[in-house]
Specification:
CATH topology of the largest domain: 3-hydroxy-3-methylglutaryl-coenzyme A Reductase, Chain A, domain 2
Largest sheet: 8 strands, antiparallel
CATH class of the largest domain: Alpha Beta
Number of strands: 10
Low-confidence stretches: none
Strand content: 15-25%
Shape: globular
CATH superfamily of the largest domain: 3-hydroxy-3-methylglutaryl-coenzyme A Reductase, Chain A, domain 2
CATH architecture of the largest domain: Alpha-Beta Complex
Structural class: alpha+beta
Length: 412
């Protein structure tokens, strides 16, 4: 058997130093390369990796677009919540009833989100809107002094059309919306914001910004130091994203009757309101948190895993504020969740993998939307509405002192 079809022989060549781990795909197909790496790890660590090797996606596609040094796949249990009901008034990208798959290892999460969605559904569903859409990338440039910095900043402000032409020459879909300069001594940051349609758009924004940075270097005294200067800000907690947004800024709200709060959430509107104020608002402020919510990232992370989003961007998805208010003389409970920086897409990246593609099909948003961007907008609205359901359910459990008993009942 030749090396190209023999994982054991390929693993031996890696151990002998004849090949490096990342070179295996040059000598074998992706499945065989992954098997060789598992064989090598099994020999060196004594760990049986048969389950890791039991994957059902196209290894060639994954090795080409999604992962390096592939050894197999990670299986995460998946549940479903719904139906999630969004008001069909024509104003949002999503309307009617839909289901949302959630992939998680946290017992009670799916049940909790389902309970909140049931409460909203009992009183006519929720309303959700994408308020802004802007994927950002912010390079940092060096100048000699603040005089040059001011010159660069002025040129950027005065030449948005020229910058947009350079950026949009790299893509058939993305559109440059804003270019905002920030000066810190001899450093000039420019935060570019793009409409990336149905793509999450980080790669699109990076490539476009590379062209724009070249133009700024040609036309001004600025010298590019890093294509990302962390004022974007990608995959890190950042106040700029909480204030200005990144990706989709989405808000969802619902109004529940006192009867629904009692029957489904087992508490009162007043108790949920007090729990939200003291926990999500006062407690978060005292902690210096950027997110003023109960556990929005829980739903966001599970939805990201299920639908093929960039899981590291959950940190921005936690940039959310939950508000609760008693209305109509105590007869109703109003609740909202606003996520400042929810970065989702329905094309590209992990959305092409079969499990994730099936999940997007369940939601009804796989691929490009009509008009462009509509599918990603709908996904953002549905995830935010599900997260609002999770907020209501957890607040209800806390207000009724049922959080610990719920986990005990479900054996978690």
């Amino acid at each position: 058997m030749s090396d190209t079809t023999n994982p054991a022989a390929l693993a031996e060549r890696v151990r002998d130093g004849d090949l490096r781990l990342h070179e295996l795909e040059a000598h074998a197909d992706a499945d065989t390369a992954a098997a060789a790496r598992r064989r090598l790890l099994a020999t060196e660590t004594g760990v049986d990796l048969d389950t890791v090797g039991a994957y059902d996606f196209d290894a060639e596609q994954a090795a080409d677009a999604n992962v390096e040094n592939m050894i197999g796949g990670a299986q995460v249990p998946m549940g479903v919540v719904g139906p999630i009901e969004l008001n069909a008034d024509g104003g949002g990208a999503a309307s009617g009833e839909t289901y949302l798959p959630l992939a998680t290892t946290e017992g009670a999460l799916v049940a909790s989100v389902n309970r909140g969605c049931a409460a909203m559904r009992a009183d006519g569903g929720a309303t959700a809107r994408v308020l802004e859409n802007a994927m950002t990338r912010a390079p940092v440039f060096r100048v000699d002094d603040v005089g040059e910095a001011a010159t660069v900043a002025s040129w950027v402000r005065e030449n948005l059309d020229q910058l947009a032409d350079a950026a949009e020459a790299t893509t058939s879909h993305g559109e440059l919306q804003e270019a905002t300069p920030y000066v810190v001594g001899d450093s000039v940051f420019v935060r570019f914001a793009y409409d990336t349609k149905d793509a999450m758009g980080m790669n699109m924004a990076t490539i476009a910004t590379g062209e724009v940075a070249d133009l700024i270097e040609r036309e001004t005294p600025a010298e590019l130091i890093a294509l990302s200067g962390n004022l974007c800000s990608d995959k890190k907690p950042a106040a700029v994203n909480a204030v200005e947004g990144r990706g989709r800024t989405v808000s969802a709200d619902a109004t529940l009757s006192r009867e629904t709060v009692a029957d489904v959430l087992k508490t009162t509107p007043e108790a949920i309101t007090e729990a939200n104020t003291r926990k999500n608002l006062v407690g978060s402020a005292k902690a210096g948190a950027l997110g003023f919510n109960a556990h929005a990232a829980n739903t966001v992370a599970a939805a990201f895993l299920a639908t093929g989003q960039d899981i590291a961007q959950v940190v921005e998805g936690a940039n959310a504020i939950t508000t609760v208010d008693v209305r109509d003389g105590g007869e109703t409970l109003y609740a909202s969740l606003t996520v400042a920086s929810l970065e989702v897409g329905t094309v590209g990246g992990g959305t092409k993998l079969p499990t994730q593609a099936e999940s997007l099909d369940v939601v009804g948003v796989r691929g490009g939307g009509d008009p462009a961007g509509a599918n990603a907008d709908a996904l953002a609205e549905i995830i935010t509405t599900a997260a609002l359901g999770g907020e209501l359910s957890l607040l209800g459990a806390l207000a009724s002192s049922n959080l610990a008993s719920a986990h005990e009942e479900l054996g978690r």
